[in-house]
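Justification of computing resources. Each target in the renewal requires a structure prediction run like the one illustrated here; the chain below, 136 residues long, is used simply to show the kind of job we budget for.
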Amino acid sequence: MLDTAVRERMANSLKDALDQFIGTEAYHRLSPLHGDLVATDGVKYLCEAAECFWLLDAIASHQPRALRDRMLRDMQFWTLRVNEDRSAVLEVARDEGDVAFHQDIEFTDFPLPEVRIWVAPRGPADTYVAMLPDEH
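Resulting structure tokens:
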């Protein structure tokens, strides 16, 4: 297990890198299991750098439930919050403070204390795109 100082340096480096993503040049299909959810360059980088493809899988696995909610069909605001004991909560909100549902995660090695991923429809092909907020 990494000590706190190393974990903090890695988190700061990842945060700095994620702050560089504004817009996207391509959409990436990161899982053959979830063909209707694509990712921007920033989300792809996040999944690779933090080794958290599981996070996109979790978001994709909740899409059947999310898409039954009229507001979440237009825009989903996902937040992963990591606690000091390395447990976490993944939640989706319709808008600021309007949480639709959440998932408790018993353990994660995700390096950041929090990350936000937005999901929105992309075109008429029933495809949804996962993006960092600054890529919207």
